[in-house]
Design goal:
The complex is a heterodimer of chains A (about 110) and B (about 120). Chain A contains no helices and 11 strands. In chain A, a hairpin with a 4-residue loop joins strand 7 and strand 8. Chain A is about 0% helix and about 65% strand. Chain A is mainly β. In chain A, the strands form 2 sheets. In chain A, strands 2, 4, 5, 9, 10 and 11 form a 6-stranded mixed beta sheet that branches. The radius of gyration of chain A is 14 Å and the shape is globular. With about 120 residues, chain B is an all-beta fold. In chain B, about 0% of the residues lie in helices and about 50% in strands. Chain B has no helices and 11 strands. In chain B, strands 2, 4, 5, 6, 9, 10 and 11 form a 7-stranded mixed beta sheet that branches. Chain B has a 4-stranded antiparallel beta sheet with strand order 1-3-8-7, with no helix packed on it. The radius of gyration of chain B is 14 Å and the shape is globular. The chains are: A mainly beta (about 110), B mainly beta (about 120). The interface between A and B is medium-sized, with 26 and 28 residues.
Chain lengths: ~110, ~120
């Protein structure tokens, strides 16, 4: 079982719909990242969370540390939101925050006009 | 441009050849990471540096792979005797280690195709 699991793997939506992508992890973490990857490979960091909720424009990210779960929401989705969304965690072990990221497999989002 | 840059963006090589990729991190960032991403998968950790010290290497990094960051600035990743299974996107990221804040900024990646 992967340490970071995302669902769904593929998501198709109509423009304007509210979208939720989920991420569950099985290890202790110091932070969770939501990343966006467009065709061609470039990765952009959307959020870094260690607790609570963050909002940026139409994007909202939440994390529940006790349940080891995070969600990324997109309100009023638009075709330009079409991309791969990746959840990644920075592991914590014995009080040490490890720098490297462990990634989920990504969610392919397609928003149709 | 103040972002992470990688060179080349694309590399096509024949099996058995050696290839070298370069990553230039954001200038004040002391941590530099290499990841590999195969088609349809999330990235996987390969190795990372803090300044010039290589602090961790993944088991994915076979003896054919070597990474350096000689002056604590740019880094190179070399793959010797390439195999078709090495075909992937190689991603570099950098961060500034400061307390708990360690947001990583990614470069555009180098896409390697081994024929």
């Amino acid at each position: 079982k992967n340490e970071v699991e995302q669902s769904p793997q593929n998501l198709t939506a109509q423009e304007g719909e509210f979208i939720t992508i989920n991420c569950s992890y099985s290890v202790g973490i110091s932070a969770l990242h939501w990343l966006q990857q467009h065709p061609g490979g470039g990765i952009v960091s959307l959020f870094m969370l260690s607790s609570g909720k963050k909002k940026h424009g139409r994007l909202i990210a939440t994390i529940n540390i006790q349940e080891k779960h995070s969600s990324l929401h997109i309100t009023a989705s638009h075709p330009r939101d079409s991309a791969v969304y990746i959840c990644a965690v920075r592991l914590r072990a014995g009080g040490t925050s490890y720098g490297k990221l462990t990634f989920g497999q990504g969610t392919i989002l397609t928003v149709h006009p | 441009d103040t972002g992470v840059s990688q060179d080349p963006r694309h590399k096509i090589t024949k099996r058995g050849q050696n290839v070298t990729f370069r990553c230039d991190p954001i200038s004040e960032h002391n941590r530099l990471y290499w990841y590999r991403q195969t088609l349809g998968q999330g990235p996987e950790f390969l190795t990372y540096f803090q300044n010039e010290a290589q602090l961790e290497k993944s088991r994915l990094l076979s003896d054919r792979f070597s990474a350096e960051r000689p002056k604590g600035s740019f880094s190179t990743l070399e793959i010797q005797r390439t195999e078709q299974g090495d075909s992937a996107m190689y991603l570099c990221a950098s961060s500034l280690l400061a307390g708990n804040h360690n947001e990583q900024f990614f470069g555009p990646g180098t896409r390697l195709t081994v024929l």
